[in-house]
């Protein structure tokens, strides 16, 4: 068990303790959720974030294209062996029948919740008229939601953006369509598709949407501290926050935010030895999941995210990222952390 780790605390004024969040028949232990992120939220990362208190963790996006259903990528993204429940699977596509069929398949594989992707801004996804490209066709969005909701017995959620572009915002319409279709939860990233990940996410659109829908509403985008999470929840009336890039290299953020929301406590980051243990355990999980050849390559980005704010990483980075075997990567990482726990002396 890695987290949450003990650390120095200070106390602010305690906000009211929110009740558990319900999504259909599911009851979540925390209102701080892990976002689906392609190439990142694999089973090892989801498991790590759940250990640090994420109330729900979404799979990487899965294509509803039946020709891709039995590929290695799809099998890995649906793998949730020994993972805490509930397990949420995000699906993407533009064909209502294909999406409904894939949703049924994902539930057969163990999914406890199906999430429809209306937010991915990637060109290769939008060229297939999927992801955020769907925001330009509200009639198709309605058909997709109705078909998927009626295809499965588990709750269906939707993750979207505020619109196609700053001049083509239609969040309120998408929210109404989702609620009318029986969608159980709506997550909103506070940018349009045209904005990509540039600039600052805005959450005023969620506050306006809150006036028009009753289903659970989740805020996403640039939420990376307990204070920001608290502010966004207060300003928008959202029921939960979803953390994406804010969790990279900092899986403990879920516990920190949840504690602050529940008690007003500020909990500092883990000590160096704890961070070493967290990263080593994550790497070992990645090595086991992807194997000796792919595991060290997949682990490289996580090493960077985890260590980029630590001293002397610039000196150790080159060798760490060139390691070709799991054993070498682990040995070099332990050696680097040993230097952090030894006072540096002048030559």
Describe what you observe in this structure:
The two termini are 40 Å apart. By secondary structure, the protein is of the alpha/beta class. Helix 3 (96-108) runs parallel beside helix 5 (138-151), helix 10 (272-307) packs across helix 11 (313-322) and helix 11 runs antiparallel to helix 12 (326-340). The strands form four sheets. Strands 4, 5, 6, 7, 8, 9, 12, 13 and 14 form a nine-stranded parallel β-sheet that branches. Strands 1-15 form a two-stranded antiparallel sheet. The protein has a two-stranded antiparallel sheet with strand order 2-3. It contains twelve helices and 15 strands. The radius of gyration is 20 Å and the shape is globular. 46% of the residues are buried. It is 43% helix and 16% strand. Helix 2 (72-78) links the parallel strand 6 (62-63) and strand 7. Residues 5-12 have low confidence and may be disordered.
Structure in a nutshell:
This protein has 347 residues and is of the alpha/beta class. It is 43% helix and 16% strand. The protein has 12 helices and 15 strands.
Question: What are the key terms here?
Answer:
347 residues, alpha/beta, nine-stranded parallel sheet, two-stranded antiparallel sheet, 15 strands, 43% helix
């Amino acid at each position: 068990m890695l987290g949450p780790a003990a650390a120095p605390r200070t106390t602010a004024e305690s906000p009211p303790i929110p009740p558990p969040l319900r999504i259909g028949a599911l009851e979540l232990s925390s209102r701080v959720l892990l976002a689906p992120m392609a190439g990142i939220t694999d089973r090892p990362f989801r498991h790590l974030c759940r250990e640090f208190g994420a109330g729900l963790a979404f799979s990487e996006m899965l294509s509803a294209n039946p020709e891709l259903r039995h590929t290695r990528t799809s099998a890995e993204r649906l793998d949730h062996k020994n993972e805490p429940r509930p397990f949420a699977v995000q699906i993407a596509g533009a064909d209502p029948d294909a999406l409904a069929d894939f949703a049924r398949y994902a539930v057969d594989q163990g999914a406890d919740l199906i999430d429809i992707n209306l937010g991915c801004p990637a060109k290769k996804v939008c060229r297939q008229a999927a992801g955020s490209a769907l925001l330009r066709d509200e009639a198709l969005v309605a058909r997709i939601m109705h078909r998927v909701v009626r295809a499965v017995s588990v709750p269906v959620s939707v993750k979207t953006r505020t619109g196609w572009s700053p001049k083509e915002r239609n969040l309120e319409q998408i929210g109404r369509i989702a609620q009318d279709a029986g969608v159980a939860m709506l997550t909103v990233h506070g940018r349009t598709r045209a904005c990509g990940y540039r600039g600052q996410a805005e959450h005023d659109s969620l506050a306006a949407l809150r006036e028009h829908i009753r289903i659970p509403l989740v805020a996403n985008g640039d939420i990376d501290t307990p204070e920001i999470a608290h502010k966004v929840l207060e300003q928008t009336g959202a029921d939960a926050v979803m953390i994406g890039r804010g969790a990279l290299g900092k899986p403990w953020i879920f516990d920190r935010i949840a504690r602050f929301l529940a008690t007003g406590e500020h909990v500092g980051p883990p000590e160096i030895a704890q961070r070493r243990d967290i990263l080593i355990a994550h790497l070992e999980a990645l090595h086991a999941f992807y194997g000796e050849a792919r595991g060290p390559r997949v682990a490289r980005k996580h090493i960077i995210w985890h260590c980029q704010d630590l001293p002397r990483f610039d000196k150790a980075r080159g060798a760490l990222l060139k390691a070709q075997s799991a054993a070498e990567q682990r040995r070099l990482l332990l050696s680097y952390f040993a230097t952090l726990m030894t006072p540096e002396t002048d030559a």
